[in-house]
Amino acid sequence: MNKLYDFDGMFDEKLATFIEESAGKYSEKQWEDMIPKLYQKFGDTVLKSIGTTPRLYYQEMTAEELVETLRRHLEEEVPVSDFLCRAFEKKDCTDMLIPFLKSEKEEVVQYAISLIGSDVRAYSAYLSLIIDEDTLDDVKEAAIEQIKEHPDPVKKELLEYYYDGVEREFMLEMLSRIHEKDDIVYQVILDEFLLHLDNIPMHASYLAAYGDNRAIPYLMEQIEREDINYIEFQELKYAIEALGGEYNKPRDFSSDPFYDKIHEGDHSIFDKFDA
Predict the structure, then answer these.
(1) Hey, is 18 helix, strand or coil?
(2) This model's pTM is above 0.90
(3) Closest CA to 193 of 267, 133, 212, 180
């Protein structure tokens, strides 16, 4: 059984000593640039206590050993270094990591999603997490981001969940990233846009992401409205341009409170429109 090492802890100790010895030599900005480089150099430094470098220690493990090492790190609460995570990139560990997605511990699930990535073999498990009411929002969002990379293999499932009313907004978000154009998917996204004109930014962004220029006339109709606010205008304009259209009509939003906040540098207003 491979021994667990807290390589990040070792690095922090060396870094603290180095910073102390280099007091006054570097600016804060220089330290920000140097620390990542020092970390990478540490990864390629032979440590006498283990007889190899932190990077090679994990690279020489089999896929099975990597997964077991990760499991023990998480169970025994030994910090997981970037060197361990990077070692997974050179091994096919997906099938062995999928069971981690059923863990009751968020940290374990998040590590599994991060390491598996957008591997289609995990999509079924990802969808199970997304539709589960008990799944934490951060976990759902992480799984959604991975499926969005290539949702075509689960288009049928996404549509079924959508029609069943299960996490509709999440299903729309993923459907909007479908690469192979489909009249049914297009109509679903367009209908949701027209049905939710009280939430233009989110649903206009779905149309922009889907990339079907048949939506331009519908977006044009809404951008012409005098009652839209500045944020809605900007999202509609972006969607129109993303689909190959143009909107150059001058509009005055100087009395719009959203316009004032944005141009004063207060971007917290966008929090209301998080997708």
Answers:
(1) helix
(2) no
(3) 212
> What would the pLDDT profile of 166-211 be if each residue is shown by its tens digit?
999 999 999 999 999 999 999 999 999 999 998 999 999 999 999 9
CB atoms under 10 Å from CB of 255, counted, come to 8
Q: Which of 90, 87, 85, 153 is nearest to 119 (CA)?
A: 153
Q: Tell me the C-alpha distance between 154 and 211, whole Å.
A: 19
Taking alpha carbons only, the member of 259, 199, 251, 195 closest to residue 226 is: 251
Long-range contacts of 265-272 (CB under 8 A, 24+ apart): 269/231, 270/231
Distance CA 34, CA 40 (A): 10
Say if residues 67 and 97 touch (Cβ distance below 8 Å): yes
Q: Are 72 and 4 in contact (CB under 8 A)?
A: yes
Separation CA 154–CA 273 (nearest Å): 27
Burial of 11 (0-12, 13-18, 19+ CB in 10 A): buried
